[in-house]
């Protein structure tokens, strides 16, 4: 069985009307079209998208031959912060203390979430209740001494309080004593 040979598509030409020319370059445009085109009508017949390097015809009209022609076009790249509203549900709440019960962190994104939650809720105290000790972080490399960066290392580095499941009863029995104390490991008395 032979497959049919595909015909090569010819570029689509379009008729350039004064209306199209007015919306693109402008009726009285004095800017010179890019090579090899002689007129903007010739350019528009083959190019339906924006004129390079501009991202729109509006930018072109303003920067190429318009009121902003003496201003540099996109001279810098600036960093910006994306703020996203999300919901967080702690595993347990006792007053302004939020408990997060963790077996392990699955991703770096999950770890960063708790920093954002604390930053957004400065009156809340987040206490992690860990299942076991020395659980490695996701993607943690071996150190020279053979250990890996653990959840406890990350919690201490980011100033989060934590305790362990095995010490939770002692912690709850003494909760009022610990309520305003910032300890690395809670329940070690």
Describe the fold and architecture:
By secondary structure, the protein is α/β, with parallel strands linked by helices. The chain has two domains: 12-79, no CATH class; 92-178, Restriction Endonuclease (3-Layer(aba) Sandwich), CATH 3.40.91.30. It is built from seven helices and four strands. The chain has a four-stranded mixed β-sheet with strand order 1-2-3-4, with helices on one face. The model is unreliable at 180-189 (pLDDT under 50).
TL;DR of this structure?
The chain is α/β, with parallel strands linked by helices. It has helices at residues 18-23, 40-46, 57-63, 108-120, 151-157, 168-173, 175-178; strands spanning 92-94, 97-102, 125-130, 161-164.
Multimerization state: single chain
Count of distinct structural domains: 2
Tell me the helix content: 25-40%
Strand content: 5-15%
- Listing every helix as H and every strand as E from the N terminus to the C terminus, the arrangement reads HHHEEHEHEHH
Gyration radius (Cα, Å) is: 31 Å
Which structural class do you get from the secondary structure elements?
Answer: alpha/beta
What is the name of the CATH class of the largest domain?
Alpha Beta
The largest sheet has its strands arranged as 1-2-3-4
Features:
single chain; 189 residues; alpha/beta; 2 domains; disordered C terminus
């Amino acid at each position: 069985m032979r497959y049919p040979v595909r015909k090569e598509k010819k570029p689509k030409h379009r008729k350039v009307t004064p209306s199209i020319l007015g919306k693109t370059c402008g009726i009285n445009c004095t800017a010179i079209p890019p090579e090899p085109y002689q007129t903007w009508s010739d350019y528009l017949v083959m190019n339906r998208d924006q004129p390079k390097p501009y991202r729109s015809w509006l930018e072109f009209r303003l920067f190429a031959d318009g009121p902003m022609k003496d201003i540099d076009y996109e001279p810098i790249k600036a960093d910006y912060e994306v703020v996203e509203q999300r919901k967080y549900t702690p595993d347990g709440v006792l007053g302004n203390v939020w408990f997060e019960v963790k077996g392990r962190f699955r991703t770096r994104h999950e770890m960063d979430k708790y920093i954002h939650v604390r930053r957004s809720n400065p009156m809340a105290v987040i206490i992690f209740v860990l299942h076991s000790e020395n659980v490695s972080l996701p993607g943690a490399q071996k150190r020279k001494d053979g250990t890996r960066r653990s959840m406890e290392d990350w919690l201490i580095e980011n100033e989060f309080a934590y305790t362990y499941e095995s010490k939770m009863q002692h912690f709850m029995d003494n909760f009022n004593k610990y309520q305003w104390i910032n300890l690395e490991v809670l329940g070690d008395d």
